[in-house]
């Protein structure tokens, strides 16, 4: 949600990919891809953003904390990032999502968006459930 120098962004992508592979993810068994190369993520985020009200996003604690750290000038990208997260989850019709405690409210937003979409347009998205780690 913050502008990055192109060279730094490219290096971050490579470093993250290396870390994922170093953790033992086997690319022969799992799809490893760069989200920004899949336009459906942004397209679904737009659609879901049109179904999500701003007051709900403004109540999320991550928005409040990060906005405070940006001298009260939070960006639209920061505000709508949880909708993109919901699109990332719902695009693949995920039923279980590993999350940390700090992301539970974002997953609840994804659940609410899925339920709202399904009520309006018919059953399409499963409502994802959290997998919380004890760590």
Automatic annotation (TrEMBL):
Recorded GO molecular functions are: ATP binding; tryptophan-tRNA ligase activity
The record, for Pfam families, names: tRNA-synt_1b
Q: SUPFAM superfamilies of this UniProt entry? A: Nucleotidylyl transferase (SSF52374)
User: Which GO biological process categories is it annotated with?
Assistant: mitochondrial tryptophanyl-tRNA aminoacylation
Please provide, in alphabetical order, the Gene Ontology terms of the cellular component aspect for this entry: mitochondrial matrix
Q: Which UniProt keywords apply?
A: Aminoacyl-tRNA synthetase, ATP-binding, Ligase, Nucleotide-binding, Protein biosynthesis
Q: Record keywords: Membrane included?
A: no
Where does the source fall among the domains of life? Eukaryota
User: What EC number(s) does this enzyme carry?
Assistant: 6.1.1.2
Coiled-coil portions = none
Family affiliation: Belongs to the class-I aminoacyl-tRNA synthetase family.
Name of the molecule in the record = tryptophan--tRNA ligase
- From what organism does this protein derive? Picathartes gymnocephalus
């Amino acid at each position: 949600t913050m502008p990055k120098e192109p060279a730094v962004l490219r290096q971050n992508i490579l470093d993250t990919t290396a870390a994922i592979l170093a953790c033992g993810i086997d690319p022969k068994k799992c799809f490893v891809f760069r989200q920004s190369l899949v336009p459906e993520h942004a397209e679904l985020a737009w659609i879901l953003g049109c179904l999500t009200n701003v007051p709900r996003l403004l109540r999320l604690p991550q928005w409040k904390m990060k906005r405070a750290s940006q001298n009260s000038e939070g960006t639209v990208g920061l505000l709508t990032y949880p909708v993109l997260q919901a699109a990332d989850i719902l695009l693949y019709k995920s039923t279980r999502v590993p999350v940390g405690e700090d992301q539970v409210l974002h997953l609840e937003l994804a659940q609410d968006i899925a339920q709202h979409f399904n009520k309006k347009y018919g059953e399409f998205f499963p409502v994802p459930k959290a997998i919380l780690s004890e760590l």
